[in-house]
Protein backbone atom coordinates (compact mmCIF):
# COMPACT_ATOMS: atom_id res chain seq x y z
CA UNK A 1 0.00 0.00 0.00
CA UNK A 2 2.84 2.33 0.87
CA UNK A 3 4.50 1.72 -2.49
CA UNK A 4 1.25 2.59 -4.28
CA UNK A 5 0.97 5.87 -2.34
CA UNK A 6 4.57 6.74 -3.11
CA UNK A 7 4.01 6.05 -6.80
CA UNK A 8 0.94 8.30 -6.85
CA UNK A 9 2.84 11.12 -5.13
CA UNK A 10 5.70 10.74 -7.59
CA UNK A 11 3.28 10.90 -10.53
CA UNK A 12 1.71 14.11 -9.21
CA UNK A 13 5.16 15.65 -8.75
CA UNK A 14 6.06 14.66 -12.28
CA UNK A 15 3.18 16.60 -13.82
CA UNK A 16 3.04 19.52 -11.40
CA UNK A 17 6.56 20.23 -10.19
CA UNK A 18 9.95 18.64 -10.62
CA UNK A 19 11.58 17.17 -7.53
CA UNK A 20 14.46 19.62 -7.69
CA UNK A 21 12.33 22.63 -8.58
CA UNK A 22 12.02 24.00 -5.08
CA UNK A 23 14.33 26.88 -5.98
CA UNK A 24 12.51 27.74 -9.18
CA UNK A 25 11.46 31.34 -9.65
CA UNK A 26 7.78 31.80 -8.92
CA UNK A 27 5.64 33.22 -11.72
CA UNK A 28 4.73 36.90 -11.63
CA UNK A 29 1.36 37.58 -10.10
CA UNK A 30 1.11 41.19 -11.27
CA UNK A 31 1.87 43.39 -14.26
CA UNK A 32 3.73 46.59 -15.09
CA UNK A 33 0.68 48.79 -15.49
CA UNK A 34 1.67 52.39 -14.68
CA UNK A 35 -1.68 54.18 -14.61
CA UNK A 36 -1.54 55.95 -17.98
CA UNK A 37 -5.14 55.25 -18.90
CA UNK A 38 -5.44 58.10 -21.41
CA UNK A 39 -2.58 56.77 -23.51
CA UNK A 40 -4.10 53.31 -23.50
CA UNK A 41 -7.44 54.63 -24.72
CA UNK A 42 -5.58 56.58 -27.41
CA UNK A 43 -3.70 53.40 -28.35
CA UNK A 44 -7.01 51.58 -28.71
CA UNK A 45 -8.29 54.05 -31.31
CA UNK A 46 -4.96 54.44 -33.10
CA UNK A 47 -4.64 50.68 -33.52
CA UNK A 48 -8.27 50.55 -34.65
CA UNK A 49 -7.52 53.13 -37.36
CA UNK A 50 -4.26 51.53 -38.50
CA UNK A 51 -5.86 48.06 -38.63
CA UNK A 52 -8.78 49.43 -40.63
CA UNK A 53 -6.52 51.20 -43.12
CA UNK A 54 -4.46 48.08 -43.72
CA UNK A 55 -7.33 45.63 -44.07
CA UNK A 56 -10.04 47.76 -45.73
CA UNK A 57 -7.99 49.81 -48.20
CA UNK A 58 -7.33 46.90 -50.61
CA UNK A 59 -11.01 45.96 -50.62
CA UNK A 60 -12.17 49.55 -51.11
CA UNK A 61 -9.64 50.07 -53.87
CA UNK A 62 -10.75 46.96 -55.74
CA UNK A 63 -14.42 47.78 -55.28
CA UNK A 64 -14.65 51.49 -56.05
CA UNK A 65 -13.00 53.09 -59.06
CA UNK A 66 -12.60 56.55 -57.53
CA UNK A 67 -10.03 55.23 -55.04
CA UNK A 68 -8.58 52.46 -57.20
CA UNK A 69 -4.89 52.04 -56.63
CA UNK A 70 -2.47 51.93 -59.57
CA UNK A 71 -1.33 48.54 -60.79
CA UNK A 72 2.15 48.88 -59.31
CA UNK A 73 0.72 49.71 -55.87
CA UNK A 74 -1.35 46.53 -55.97
CA UNK A 75 1.70 44.56 -56.97
CA UNK A 76 3.80 45.94 -54.11
CA UNK A 77 1.02 45.57 -51.53
CA UNK A 78 0.36 41.98 -52.50
CA UNK A 79 3.91 40.67 -52.20
CA UNK A 80 4.95 42.98 -49.38
CA UNK A 81 1.98 41.61 -47.44
CA UNK A 82 3.08 38.04 -48.16
CA UNK A 83 6.46 38.77 -46.59
CA UNK A 84 4.78 40.36 -43.58
CA UNK A 85 2.63 37.29 -42.95
CA UNK A 86 5.57 34.89 -43.20
CA UNK A 87 7.72 36.97 -40.82
CA UNK A 88 4.80 37.24 -38.41
CA UNK A 89 4.65 33.46 -38.13
CA UNK A 90 8.34 33.04 -37.35
CA UNK A 91 9.26 36.23 -35.46
CA UNK A 92 6.06 37.50 -33.83
CA UNK A 93 4.50 34.15 -32.97
CA UNK A 94 6.91 31.24 -32.77
CA UNK A 95 9.68 33.10 -30.94
CA UNK A 96 7.37 34.60 -28.25
CA UNK A 97 5.68 31.22 -27.88
CA UNK A 98 9.05 29.61 -27.23
CA UNK A 99 9.89 32.28 -24.67
CA UNK A 100 6.57 31.83 -22.88
CA UNK A 101 6.67 28.03 -22.73
CA UNK A 102 10.30 27.95 -21.63
CA UNK A 103 9.91 30.57 -18.89
CA UNK A 104 11.89 29.72 -15.77
CA UNK A 105 8.82 29.86 -13.54
CA UNK A 106 7.14 26.96 -15.34
CA UNK A 107 7.87 23.48 -14.02
CA UNK A 108 6.92 19.92 -14.87
CA UNK A 109 6.71 18.26 -18.30
CA UNK A 110 6.44 21.63 -20.07
CA UNK A 111 10.12 22.19 -19.30
CA UNK A 112 11.26 18.83 -20.66
CA UNK A 113 10.57 19.44 -24.34
CA UNK A 114 10.53 22.44 -26.74
CA UNK A 115 6.75 22.44 -26.82
CA UNK A 116 6.40 25.68 -28.77
CA UNK A 117 8.05 24.09 -31.80
CA UNK A 118 6.25 20.79 -31.23
CA UNK A 119 2.84 22.46 -31.07
CA UNK A 120 3.70 24.54 -34.14
CA UNK A 121 4.62 21.36 -36.00
CA UNK A 122 1.42 19.61 -34.92
CA UNK A 123 -0.59 22.68 -35.93
CA UNK A 124 1.06 22.71 -39.36
CA UNK A 125 0.31 19.03 -39.99
CA UNK A 126 -3.22 19.34 -38.59
CA UNK A 127 -3.87 22.25 -40.93
CA UNK A 128 -2.49 20.33 -43.89
CA UNK A 129 -4.68 17.33 -43.04
CA UNK A 130 -7.71 19.59 -42.61
CA UNK A 131 -7.08 21.12 -46.01
CA UNK A 132 -6.74 17.67 -47.57
CA UNK A 133 -10.12 16.68 -46.15
CA UNK A 134 -11.71 20.00 -47.04
CA UNK A 135 -10.35 19.89 -50.58
CA UNK A 136 -11.73 16.37 -50.96
CA UNK A 137 -15.23 17.50 -50.06
CA UNK A 138 -14.91 20.69 -52.10
CA UNK A 139 -13.87 18.63 -55.12
CA UNK A 140 -16.72 16.21 -54.50
CA UNK A 141 -19.23 19.05 -54.26
CA UNK A 142 -17.82 20.75 -57.37
CA UNK A 143 -17.70 17.62 -59.50
CA UNK A 144 -21.06 16.30 -58.35
CA UNK A 145 -21.76 12.84 -59.62
CA UNK A 146 -19.70 13.24 -62.80
CA UNK A 147 -16.44 11.43 -63.35
CA UNK A 148 -13.21 13.19 -62.48
CA UNK A 149 -11.84 15.05 -65.48
CA UNK A 150 -8.13 15.82 -65.76
CA UNK A 151 -8.52 18.97 -67.82
CA UNK A 152 -6.39 21.92 -66.69
CA UNK A 153 -7.41 25.36 -67.87
CA UNK A 154 -6.06 28.84 -67.15
CA UNK A 155 -8.05 31.79 -68.39
CA UNK A 156 -7.66 35.52 -68.20
CA UNK A 157 -5.04 38.01 -69.24
CA UNK A 158 -2.20 35.55 -68.77
CA UNK A 159 -3.32 32.96 -71.25
CA UNK A 160 -5.13 29.67 -71.62
CA UNK A 161 -3.65 26.23 -71.17
CA UNK A 162 -4.46 23.42 -73.59
CA UNK A 163 -3.25 20.06 -72.38
CA UNK A 164 -2.32 17.18 -74.62
CA UNK A 165 -0.40 14.00 -73.95
CA UNK A 166 3.02 15.57 -74.41
CA UNK A 167 2.96 19.26 -73.45
CA UNK A 168 0.98 22.32 -72.46
CA UNK A 169 0.82 25.23 -74.85
CA UNK A 170 0.04 28.74 -73.61
CA UNK A 171 -1.78 31.12 -75.88
CA UNK A 172 -3.09 34.58 -75.11
CA UNK A 173 -6.80 35.05 -74.79
CA UNK A 174 -8.48 38.30 -73.72
CA UNK A 175 -10.95 37.88 -70.91
CA UNK A 176 -14.45 38.93 -72.01
CA UNK A 177 -15.93 38.83 -68.53
CA UNK A 178 -18.15 41.52 -67.19
CA UNK A 179 -18.02 42.40 -63.51
CA UNK A 180 -21.08 40.72 -62.07
CA UNK A 181 -20.47 40.85 -58.37
CA UNK A 182 -16.87 39.78 -58.04
CA UNK A 183 -14.44 42.11 -56.35
CA UNK A 184 -12.59 43.26 -59.45
CA UNK A 185 -12.98 43.31 -63.20
CA UNK A 186 -10.16 42.06 -65.43
CA UNK A 187 -8.69 44.49 -67.92
CA UNK A 188 -7.63 43.28 -71.35
CA UNK A 189 -4.01 43.28 -72.47
CA UNK A 190 -2.66 45.40 -69.62
CA UNK A 191 -0.86 42.81 -67.51
CA UNK A 192 -2.47 44.33 -64.46
CA UNK A 193 -2.12 42.46 -61.19
CA UNK A 194 -5.82 41.81 -60.83
CA UNK A 195 -6.90 40.72 -57.35
CA UNK A 196 -7.79 37.05 -57.54
CA UNK A 197 -7.00 36.77 -61.23
CA UNK A 198 -3.82 34.71 -60.99
CA UNK A 199 -3.68 33.19 -57.53
CA UNK A 200 -3.47 29.41 -58.08
CA UNK A 201 -4.02 30.35 -61.74
CA UNK A 202 -7.68 30.74 -60.79
CA UNK A 203 -10.05 31.27 -63.64
CA UNK A 204 -13.22 33.25 -63.86
CA UNK A 205 -14.26 30.77 -66.54
CA UNK A 206 -17.14 29.47 -64.47
CA UNK A 207 -18.96 32.72 -65.21
CA UNK A 208 -18.70 32.26 -68.99
CA UNK A 209 -22.02 31.05 -70.43
CA UNK A 210 -20.14 28.78 -72.85
CA UNK A 211 -18.73 26.61 -70.06
CA UNK A 212 -21.61 26.53 -67.59
CA UNK A 213 -22.29 22.96 -66.37
CA UNK A 214 -19.09 21.68 -68.00
CA UNK A 215 -16.08 20.02 -66.30
CA UNK A 216 -14.10 23.25 -66.77
CA UNK A 217 -16.67 25.18 -64.78
CA UNK A 218 -16.64 22.56 -62.03
CA UNK A 219 -12.86 22.71 -61.80
CA UNK A 220 -12.96 26.51 -61.59
CA UNK A 221 -15.55 26.25 -58.81
CA UNK A 222 -13.30 23.82 -56.96
CA UNK A 223 -10.35 26.21 -57.21
CA UNK A 224 -12.51 29.11 -56.11
CA UNK A 225 -13.69 27.28 -53.00
CA UNK A 226 -10.10 26.30 -52.16
CA UNK A 227 -9.05 29.94 -52.37
CA UNK A 228 -11.84 30.95 -50.03
CA UNK A 229 -10.74 28.24 -47.60
CA UNK A 230 -7.17 29.55 -47.56
CA UNK A 231 -8.40 33.08 -46.79
CA UNK A 232 -10.41 31.86 -43.80
CA UNK A 233 -7.45 29.85 -42.51
CA UNK A 234 -5.20 32.91 -42.76
CA UNK A 235 -7.73 35.06 -40.92
CA UNK A 236 -8.08 32.46 -38.18
CA UNK A 237 -4.34 32.34 -37.56
CA UNK A 238 -3.93 36.12 -37.45
CA UNK A 239 -6.84 36.71 -35.07
CA UNK A 240 -5.34 34.45 -32.40
CA UNK A 241 -2.21 36.56 -32.38
CA UNK A 242 -4.13 39.85 -32.33
CA UNK A 243 -5.87 39.02 -29.05
CA UNK A 244 -2.70 38.52 -27.04
CA UNK A 245 -0.80 41.54 -28.35
CA UNK A 246 -3.78 43.70 -27.39
CA UNK A 247 -3.80 42.34 -23.85
CA UNK A 248 -0.05 42.80 -23.52
CA UNK A 249 -0.20 46.41 -24.65
CA UNK A 250 -2.94 47.27 -22.16
CA UNK A 251 -0.84 46.26 -19.14
CA UNK A 252 2.60 47.30 -20.44
CA UNK A 253 4.77 49.55 -18.27
CA UNK A 254 7.89 51.45 -19.27
CA UNK A 255 7.98 49.88 -22.71
CA UNK A 256 4.42 51.04 -23.47
CA UNK A 257 5.41 53.96 -25.73
CA UNK A 258 7.69 51.86 -27.90
CA UNK A 259 5.23 48.96 -28.00
CA UNK A 260 2.39 51.31 -28.90
CA UNK A 261 4.21 52.80 -31.90
CA UNK A 262 5.46 49.44 -33.12
CA UNK A 263 2.01 47.84 -32.87
CA UNK A 264 0.42 50.64 -34.90
CA UNK A 265 2.71 49.79 -37.81
CA UNK A 266 2.50 46.07 -37.06
CA UNK A 267 -1.27 46.08 -37.39
CA UNK A 268 -1.22 48.19 -40.53
CA UNK A 269 1.28 45.92 -42.29
CA UNK A 270 -0.42 42.74 -41.12
CA UNK A 271 -3.78 44.15 -42.15
CA UNK A 272 -2.35 45.00 -45.55
CA UNK A 273 -1.17 41.42 -45.99
CA UNK A 274 -4.56 40.04 -45.00
CA UNK A 275 -6.55 42.69 -46.86
CA UNK A 276 -4.84 42.07 -50.21
CA UNK A 277 -5.55 38.35 -49.90
CA UNK A 278 -9.19 39.03 -49.08
CA UNK A 279 -9.53 41.51 -51.93
CA UNK A 280 -7.95 39.24 -54.55
CA UNK A 281 -10.45 36.47 -53.88
CA UNK A 282 -13.24 36.76 -56.51
CA UNK A 283 -16.16 36.61 -54.09
CA UNK A 284 -19.41 35.76 -55.78
CA UNK A 285 -22.61 37.70 -55.21
CA UNK A 286 -23.88 35.40 -52.47
CA UNK A 287 -20.73 36.15 -50.45
CA UNK A 288 -20.48 39.84 -51.23
CA UNK A 289 -20.46 40.81 -47.53
CA UNK A 290 -17.86 38.23 -46.51
CA UNK A 291 -14.72 40.28 -47.35
CA UNK A 292 -16.04 43.21 -45.35
CA UNK A 293 -16.80 41.01 -42.36
CA UNK A 294 -13.36 39.39 -42.48
CA UNK A 295 -11.63 42.78 -42.55
CA UNK A 296 -13.91 44.04 -39.79
CA UNK A 297 -12.98 41.04 -37.65
CA UNK A 298 -9.29 41.82 -37.97
CA UNK A 299 -9.87 45.54 -37.41
CA UNK A 300 -11.79 45.05 -34.16
CA UNK A 301 -9.94 42.14 -32.56
CA UNK A 302 -6.86 43.95 -31.23
CA UNK A 303 -8.71 47.10 -30.08
CA UNK A 304 -11.25 44.93 -28.25
CA UNK A 305 -8.39 43.02 -26.64
CA UNK A 306 -6.82 46.33 -25.58
CA UNK A 307 -10.16 47.37 -24.09
CA UNK A 308 -10.44 44.09 -22.20
CA UNK A 309 -6.88 44.53 -20.99
CA UNK A 310 -7.69 48.00 -19.70
CA UNK A 311 -10.70 46.58 -17.89
CA UNK A 312 -8.64 43.91 -16.12
CA UNK A 313 -5.43 45.94 -15.84
CA UNK A 314 -5.30 45.56 -12.06
CA UNK A 315 -5.73 41.79 -12.08
CA UNK A 316 -4.34 40.49 -15.37
CA UNK A 317 -0.86 39.00 -14.92
CA UNK A 318 0.86 38.31 -18.26
CA UNK A 319 3.71 36.57 -16.40
CA UNK A 320 1.51 34.13 -14.52
CA UNK A 321 1.72 30.43 -15.29
CA UNK A 322 -1.77 30.40 -16.78
CA UNK A 323 -1.10 33.39 -19.04
CA UNK A 324 2.27 32.04 -20.15
CA UNK A 325 0.81 28.65 -21.01
CA UNK A 326 -2.19 30.16 -22.80
CA UNK A 327 -0.14 32.66 -24.80
CA UNK A 328 2.49 30.10 -25.65
CA UNK A 329 0.07 27.43 -26.82
CA UNK A 330 -2.10 29.73 -28.92
CA UNK A 331 0.88 31.57 -30.39
CA UNK A 332 2.37 28.19 -31.35
CA UNK A 333 -0.85 27.16 -33.05
CA UNK A 334 -1.06 30.48 -34.89
CA UNK A 335 2.59 30.20 -35.91
CA UNK A 336 1.93 26.83 -37.52
CA UNK A 337 -1.03 28.26 -39.40
CA UNK A 338 0.80 31.33 -40.70
CA UNK A 339 3.99 29.46 -41.57
CA UNK A 340 2.04 26.86 -43.53
CA UNK A 341 -0.12 29.49 -45.21
CA UNK A 342 2.84 31.73 -45.96
CA UNK A 343 5.13 29.08 -47.40
CA UNK A 344 2.54 27.00 -49.25
CA UNK A 345 -0.35 29.29 -50.15
CA UNK A 346 1.51 32.57 -50.62
CA UNK A 347 5.00 31.61 -51.77
CA UNK A 348 4.66 28.30 -53.59
CA UNK A 349 1.38 29.02 -55.31
CA UNK A 350 2.21 32.61 -56.23
CA UNK A 351 5.69 31.98 -57.59
CA UNK A 352 5.57 28.40 -58.86
CA UNK A 353 2.00 27.46 -59.75
CA UNK A 354 0.73 30.84 -60.91
CA UNK A 355 1.10 31.87 -64.56
CA UNK A 356 1.66 35.56 -63.85
CA UNK A 357 5.47 35.25 -63.99
CA UNK A 358 5.67 32.89 -66.95
CA UNK A 359 8.42 34.14 -69.24
CA UNK A 360 9.09 37.20 -67.09
CA UNK A 361 11.96 36.49 -64.72
CA UNK A 362 12.54 40.18 -63.97
CA UNK A 363 8.99 40.60 -62.72
CA UNK A 364 9.31 37.47 -60.60
CA UNK A 365 12.60 38.72 -59.12
CA UNK A 366 10.98 42.08 -58.33
CA UNK A 367 8.09 40.36 -56.57
CA UNK A 368 10.52 38.23 -54.57
CA UNK A 369 12.56 41.31 -53.66
CA UNK A 370 9.43 43.12 -52.43
CA UNK A 371 8.39 40.07 -50.41
CA UNK A 372 11.83 40.00 -48.78
CA UNK A 373 11.44 43.64 -47.80
CA UNK A 374 8.05 42.92 -46.22
CA UNK A 375 9.48 40.00 -44.26
CA UNK A 376 12.58 41.99 -43.30
CA UNK A 377 10.66 45.00 -42.03
CA UNK A 378 8.24 42.85 -40.04
CA UNK A 379 11.17 40.90 -38.62
CA UNK A 380 12.81 44.18 -37.60
CA UNK A 381 9.68 45.19 -35.70
CA UNK A 382 10.15 41.98 -33.71
CA UNK A 383 13.06 43.71 -31.95
CA UNK A 384 10.50 45.78 -30.02
CA UNK A 385 7.27 43.77 -30.19
Automatic annotation (TrEMBL):
> Which positions, given as ranges, span the membrane?
41-60, 72-93, 113-134, 228-252, 258-279, 291-312, 332-351, 363-382
Q: Name one GO cellular component term.
A: plasma membrane
Intracellular or extracellular location(s): Membrane
Q: Per the record, a Pfam family? A: Zip
**Topology relative to the membrane:** Multi-pass membrane protein
Annotated stretches, region: Disordered: 169-207
An example GO BP is: zinc ion import across plasma membrane
Care to name a GO molecular-function term for this sequence? low-affinity zinc ion transmembrane transporter activity
Tree of life domain: Eukaryota
Query: Per UniProt, which keywords does this protein have?
Result: Ion transport, Membrane, Transmembrane, Transmembrane helix, Transport
Keyword Zinc set for record: no
- UniProt cross-references to InterPro entries, sorted A to Z: ZIP (IPR003689), Zn/Fe_permease_fun/pln (IPR004698)
UniProt-listed PANTHER family: ZINC-REGULATED TRANSPORTER 2 (PTHR11040:SF69), ZINC/IRON TRANSPORTER (PTHR11040)
Q: Which family does it belong to?
A: Belongs to the ZIP transporter (TC 2.A.5) family.
UniProt protein name: ZIP zinc/iron transport family
| Species in which this protein is naturally found | Cyberlindnera jadinii (strain ATCC 18201 / CBS 1600 / BCRC 20928 / JCM 3617 / NBRC 0987 / NRRL Y-1542) (Torula yeast)
Amino acid sequence: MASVSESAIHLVKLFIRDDDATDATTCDSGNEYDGRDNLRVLALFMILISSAIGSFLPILSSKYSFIRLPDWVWFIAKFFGSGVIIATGFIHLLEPASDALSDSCLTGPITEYPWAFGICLMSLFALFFSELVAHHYVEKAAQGSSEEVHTHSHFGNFGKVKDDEESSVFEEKPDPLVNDGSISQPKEETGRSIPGHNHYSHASEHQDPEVINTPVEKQALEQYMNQILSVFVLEFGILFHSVFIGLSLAVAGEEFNTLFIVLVFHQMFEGLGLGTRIAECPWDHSRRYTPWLLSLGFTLTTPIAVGIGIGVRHTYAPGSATALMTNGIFDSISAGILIYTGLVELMAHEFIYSTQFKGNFKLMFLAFFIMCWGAGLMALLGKWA
